[in-house]
Amino acid sequence: MIKIKNLFILSILLFTTHIFAGGIESNKGNSKYFIGIGAGEGGGAYGGSFNALRISYQTHLSHNSRYDFDYLSDIGLNFWKDDSRLNALNSTYATSSLDSSNLSISYSRIIRKYTTQHTFLDLGLGLSIHNNDSMGGADLGSYYQIESRLGVGYERETYRSVLNLFHYSNGGLESKNDGVDILMLSISKYF
Predict the structure, then answer these.
(1) What is the count of structural domains for the chain?
(2) Alpha-carbon torsion (52, 58, 62, 65), positive or negative
(3) Beta partners for residue 114, in sequence order
(4) Which structural domain, as residue segments, surrounds residue 16?
(5) CATH code, domain with 106
């Protein structure tokens, strides 16, 4: 029952929040398309580490004039290269394979709040599908993960850079749920 409740809440967050982001009548004529590349490093619950490369495509969906924030959509392709160098103690407690590189596809919705003309804060939530259910000694519990992000960025006319903290976990939907975190710097170009 808890799994159904969590999936229902997640579905509501992902697919109906356009109502709170300005609604269907939002002006999409100002839509911007950003293609970006990011590189970062992260780790699992037992000290394992990995390098990540992300290629993403962001679309500006709408602007909420009441609360003055932008609502974006992000599709990402992630390449995760396991770089685990666990010591003997951490290897003992690791819950998954230590040699587990990964490929994932993600879809997120992002709320962006500009703090000045060029700087902004991002808060995002989405879903990702991985080809491996473990990473850097952490057992993710399933191939399907919830992607959450918190970011700070700087944007000019055609370029944007963002420092994001990503967290991937299955949200407690499976018994194994070590989760992984990654800190990533991304640079994007407006098209």
Answers:
(1) 1
(2) positive
(3) 120
(4) 2-190
(5) 2.40.160.20
**Mapped to the 3 state alphabet, what secondary structure does the chain carry?**
CHHHHHHHHHHHHHHCHHHCCCCCCCCHHHCCEEEEEEEEEEEECCCCEEEEEEEEEEEEEEEECCCCEEEEEEEEEEEEEECCCCCHHHHHHCCCCCCCCEEEEEEEEEEEEECCCCEEEEEEEEEEEECCCEECCEECCCCEEEEEEEEEEEECCCEEEEEEEEEEECCCCCCCCCCEEEEEEEEEEEC
Identity of the amino acid at 78: N
User: Which among 166, 137, 136 has a CA at the least distance from the CA of 151?
Assistant: 166
Amino acid at 189: K
Spell out the per-residue pLDDT of the chain, length 191, in tens. 455 555 555 555 444 444 444 444 444 444 456 777 877 777 766 556 778 888 888 888 999 999 999 999 999 998 887 766 655 555 555 555 555 678 899 999 999 999 999 999 999 999 999 888 877 667 788 889 999 999 999 998 888 999 999 999 888 888 888 788 888 999 888 77
